[in-house]
Specification:
The chain is an all-alpha fold. It contains 16 helices and no strands.
Length: about 300
C-alpha cells in the first residue's frame, strides 16, 4: 500500500506541503501527545529526538526521474544513467552505498531548483540508516557540509532579500536532513561536531522564514540540538542554543515552533544550572505570556510547566 502524503491526501509529490513534524513514535509533541508535568517537583523534560520519517518515496523517485529526463535534454552532463536512476529508486526499499553515492551527486550537482527531491530522499535515507553518514562526495565533503551548501543554508538567511519559493523549499529540506541525522548515534556525533557551523547558518533564520513548515522544521533542529547538548553534558553549547532559541521564541507565532522552543528551555534548564539561571533572564517573561496566550493549548500547558520549574 503506498504511503499517503499526510497533507495532500494522495501520492502527488508536493514538497512545500510535506509534513513538518516527526513520526508518531519519535515526536514527543505530536502524534503521541506530550503532556508536560504540572508541578515543579514532577517536571520531566522530553528526551527523545524528533525524527521525520514521513514521506512518499515513490512520488519522490518519480519526480527525480522526471527531472533527470529534462536534464538529459538540456544539460546532458548533469543527467545520470538509467542504471544510476535504478540504484536511486531502490532507496524506496533499502539503503545501499551505491545508491547513496548517486543521491549525493544529485544533491550537490543538480541545478538549485531541481535539488529538492534529492534532498527529500536523502532525509528519508538518513532517518532509515546510518549508511549515508559515511558517504562522501568526490571532493570529500562531509554530509553536514554537503547539505548546508546544497540547500544554501550558509547564505539564504544572511541577506535582506525575500526568500524565493526555491530558497524556502531547499532550506526546509536541508534543515530536515540535519534534524534526521539525530536518528542514529553516529549522526548525532557528526551533527554535534558541526554544531558551530549549523548554529551559524541558522542564526537569524526565524526573522527571515515565513513558510510555516520551514519554521517548524527549524524549531525541530533546535530542539534536537538541545537534546544532544543535554546528553553530552555541554553547558556552554547549551547556553548558545538557549540564547538562539530565546530569540526564535520571541519572534514566532507558529504553535508547533513555540511548543518545541519552550521545551528547549525545559530540556536545558533541567540539565544545567547555568542554563536555568540564564533561562530566567532570557525567556521568563516570554514563557509566562505563552502560558496565557500561547497559540495552542499544548503550548500553554508546556509554558506553564516550564515556567513553574524556572520560578
Amino acid at each position: 500500500q503506498p504511503h499517503i502524503d499526510p497533507f495532500t491526501g494522495g501520492s502527488r509529490y508536493v514538497p512545500s506541503q510535506s509534513q513538518a513534524g516527526g513520526s508518531v513514535a519519535a515526536d514527543p509533541f505530536t502524534g503521541n501527545r506530550y503532556v508536560p508535568a504540572q508541578t515543579t517537583a514532577a517536571y520531566s523534560p522530553p528526551s527523545e529526538y524528533i525524527i521525520n520519517r514521513q514521506g512518499n518515496s515513490s512520488a519522490i523517485v518519480k519526480k527525480l526521474a522526471e527531472f533527470n529526463t529534462e536534464l538529459a535534454q538540456s544539460d546532458t552532463h548533469l543527467a545520470v544513467s538509467a542504471e544510476d536512476m535504478q540504484r536511486v529508486s531502490e532507496l524506496e526499499n533499502a539503503v545501499s552505498e551505491d545508491a547513496c553515492s548517486v543521491l549525493l551527486r544529485l544533491v550537490q550537482a543538480w541545478p538549485v531548483d531541481r535539488r529538492f527531491p534529492a534532498l527529500d530522499l536523502l532525509r528519508l535515507a538518513v532517518a532509515t540508516s546510518p549508511l549515508p553518514l559515511t558517504c562522501h562526495t568526490s571532493d570529500g565533503k562531509s554530509l553536514v557540509a554537503l547539505v548546508i551548501e546544497a540547500s544554501n543554508l550558509d547564505t539564504v538567511f544572511a541577506t535582506d532579500s525575500t526568500l524565493s519559493k526555491t530558497d524556502e523549499i531547499n532550506a526546509m529540506m536541508g534543515v530536515r536532513v540535519l534534524a534526521n541525522m539525530f536518528a542514529h548515534p553516529q549522526g548525532t556525533d557528526m551533527a554535534w561536531a558541526a554544531r558551530s557551523r549549523i548554529l551559524s547558518a541558522l542564526d537569524g533564520s526565524w526573522s527571515r522564514a515565513t513558510n510555516k513548515n520551514l519554521v517548524t522544521s527549524l524549531s525541530n533542529l533546535y530542539f534536537n540540538l538541545a537534546i544532544a547538548a543535554a546528553q553530552k553534558s555541554d553547558d556552554d553549547e547549551g547556553l548558545n542554543i538557549l540564547s538562539a532559541s530565546s530569540r526564535f521564541l520571541e519572534h514566532t507565532d507558529n504553535a508547533d515552533a513555540q511548543l518545541r522552543l519552550v521545551n528547549v528551555f525545559g530540556v536545558l534548564a533541567s540539565k544545567f544550572q547555568l542554563c536555568k539561571d540564564s533561562a530566567r533572564v532570557l525567556g521568563d517573561e516570554t514563557i509566562v505570556i505563552l502560558g496565557i496566550m500561547g497559540k495552542s493549548e499544548a503550548v500553554k500547558a508546556a509554558a506553564k510547566s516550564v515556567g513553574a520549574f524556572l520560578s
